[in-house]
Structures are given as structure tokens and as C-alpha cells.
Amino acid sequence: MFEEDARQAARNRRSVAPRVRARCPECASWVPLKDSVELWDLVTCPHCDTRLEVVDLKPLTLDYAEDTWEEEEDWEEEDLDDDEYY
Asked: CA–CA distance from 74 to each of 67, 68, 71 (Å)?
């Protein structure tokens, strides 16, 4: 009985590590990904904080993400007031 519990505990410890992961192109660290990862998903490397995107699923490959978020934020700030058109 004790051996069975010990084996189960060892399996549980091993399953804690993420199964889906890819290497960061900046620092070469493993970046954990969700099981349902999709092409072009955005992630951040937990070690170097580089913004990355999934560019291939087989094999899982990450590349530097374009700064589209910053461009969208700039656009929102430059929105014209609705009053100008009335």
C-alpha cells in the first residue's frame, strides 16, 4: 500500500511541469503555454519579459511579437471628439 502511494505521489510531482512549452528566442528559456495554444497567440516570457507570439504549432515555435498593442493604444488616444462632427 505504501509503495502504491509513493508511486502516485511521484506521478503527481512530475505532472506539475507544463506539458506544452516552447523556447524563448531572446533568452532560450522554456515558456509554458496553455494546452489549447493556437497560432498567433501572444505570450510573455516569464524570465526576460519579452513579448512573443506563436508562429508555428508543429513544432511549437515562438518569435518576437509585433508591437500591435502599442499602435492600437496610440490610435485610441488620437480618436477625434464626436463634437467636431456635429
From this structure: 11, 10, 5
Tell me the three cell numbers of residue 24: 524563448
Own/partner pairs, 25-34, CB within 8 angstroms, 24+ separation: 25/50, 25/52, 25/62, 25/63, 25/64, 26/50, 26/64, 31/62, 33/60
Instruction: Classify domain 2-85 at the CATH class level.
Output: mainly beta
Give the whole-angstrom CA distance, residue 79 versus residue 86: 15
User: Which tens digits make up the pLDDT trace of 11-42?
Assistant: 665 555 558 999 999 999 999 999 999 999 99
Q: What's the residue count for the chain?
A: 86
- Neighbouring CB atoms inside 10 A of 24's CB total 20
pLDDT, average across residues 63-78: 64
